[in-house]
């Protein structure tokens, strides 16, 4: 099931993990809206993880980086982990140049590795949904 975030970004729920991707550069207003939407959904849906794919993000500024750190802190306080995946080298270099370490933010090379970090593997169904699928 998906629902558009306040930032116009779809957020999918896969078992007990929310998955979203940044499709383009985020302005400050969109970053705040996405952070608020994800935090609300973590609380209301009691998910244990959030995967944010930033592979399409070519640039990042200090505001968006701080929004990711705040989202991670909020999610952790609500019992969920956040993994940011797909960071481009230019984005990593920019973060280093800005002196931003994304403290507390877990990263993964790609979405598959991010989902693995959150307890998923290929062909794995979450425990709560495992009984819902018909046998093959």
UniProtKB/TrEMBL annotation:
Pfam families: STAS (PF01740). InterPro entries: Bact_StressResp_Reg (IPR051932), STAS_dom (IPR002645), STAS_dom_sf (IPR036513). It comes from the Bacteria. Residues 7-118 form the STAS domain. This is STAS domain-containing protein.
């Amino acid at each position: 099931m998906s629902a558009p975030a306040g930032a116009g970004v779809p957020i999918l729920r896969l078992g007990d993990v929310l998955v979203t991707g940044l499709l383009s550069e985020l302005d400050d207003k969109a970053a705040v809206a996405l952070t608020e939407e994800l935090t609300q959904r973590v609380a209301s849906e009691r998910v244990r993880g959030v995967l944010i794919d930033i592979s399409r993000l070519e640039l990042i500024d200090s505001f968006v980086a701080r929004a990711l750190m705040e989202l991670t802190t909020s999610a952790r306080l609500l019992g969920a982990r956040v993994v940011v995946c797909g960071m481009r080298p230019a984005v990593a270099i920019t973060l280093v140049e800005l002196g931003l370490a994304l403290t507390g933010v877990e990263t993964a090379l790609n979405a598959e590795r991010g989902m693995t970090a959150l307890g998923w593997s290929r062909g794995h169904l979450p425990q709560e949904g495992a009984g819902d699928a018909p046998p093959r």
